[in-house]
Design goal:
Elements (H helix, E strand, L loop, with lengths): L14 H76 L6 H26 L2 H6 L1 H16 L2 E5 L8 H21 L4 E9 L2 E8 L6 H7 L4 H10 L3 E6 L5 E8 L10
Parallel strand pairs: 1-2
Antiparallel strand pairs: 2-3, 3-5, 4-5
Length: about 260
């Protein structure tokens, strides 16, 4: 008895249309996937465009409030201080009212200094007048004087920077230095800003108590979440290296020419 191998089953009438249907289903699935991907990309562009617009409005409002405090409230307090001093000078040296006036003049001077400090925190005029390098050096100098912390600044010559980019890097530097002063228990901090390879890099390194970098980034505490989101709006990123007892090194990287989100199709 001779054994024979089974012959392949002949194509049935329904197999070719079945494969065609499978191909059609796969093509439709690919189109749906591409449409979903396109929608996600449009939503991402819309989010970034809206985020940048909101941030610009916030900065403009900060600029207006800072100007009003400095030019309005600050100048009125200065005038009031001078008038009180003039009244005090007109009184006899043994007049008991002079003591009251001296107290009022001192209070007026303290309030004037607080107003100027608040104005600088809202929007330092030096950032608009002289640019990022001068603003960061001024910020570091002021914080060092107020805290006793040693703050070094290294900024080699930078190329011309867009106004948004200068504000972005300044705000990140301001938040990072504030964290170092308030939480790091550091003795010294080094701020470095360099432009290289089409990127602008800000580094803030301290010799403080350090932290668990991964947990800090996940929680977004100490302003890290805000810094990261602002950098993302301009195609940037935030890196944090730290360990307990080994200080903290924050690095912000952003393109020198961030892409402008295009209009929604």
């Amino acid at each position: 008895m001779t054994s024979t191998s089974p012959l392949p089953a002949p194509a049935t009438a329904g197999s070719v249309p079945s494969r065609r249907n499978d191909m059609d289903d796969l093509s439709a699935l690919r189109q749906q996937y591409q449409a979903l991907l396109d929608r996600l990309q449009r939503n991402e562009r819309d989010f970034r465009r809206l985020g940048r617009a909101v941030w610009r409005v916030q900065e403009e409002e900060r600029r207006r409030l800072a100007r009003d405090l400095h030019d309005g409230v600050g100048q009125n307090l200065t005038a009031l201080k001078h008038r009180l001093a003039a009244i005090a000078q007109s009184l006899p040296a043994d007049d008991p009212a002079r003591g009251e006036l001296d107290g009022a003049i001192a209070l007026c001077g303290d309030t004037l200094e607080d107003t100027r400090q608040l104005s600088r925190l809202l929007r330092p005029p030096i950032l608009d007048d002289l640019g990022l390098e001068a603003a960061v050096r001024s910020l570091a100098r002021g914080l060092a004087q107020a805290s006793g912390l040693e703050i070094g600044v290294e900024i080699p010559p930078l190329p011309p920077l867009d106004s948004d980019l200068q504000t972005l890097v300044f705000r990140v530097a301001q938040e990072a230095l504030s964290n170092a002063v308030r939480h790091a228990q550091a003795r010294s901090v080094l701020v470095r800003i360099v432009a290289s390879g089409g990127l602008l890099q800000l580094q803030v390194a301290d010799d403080g108590r350090g932290c668990d970098a991964e947990s800090a980034l996940v929680s977004g505490g100490s302003g890290l979440g805000g810094m990261r989101e602002r950098l993302r709006l301009y195609d940037g990123r935030l890196e944090l290296r730290s360990a307990p007892g080994e200080g903290t090194r924050l690095r912000a990287v952003v393109p020198l020419a961030p892409s402008e989100p295009g209009p929604t199709a």
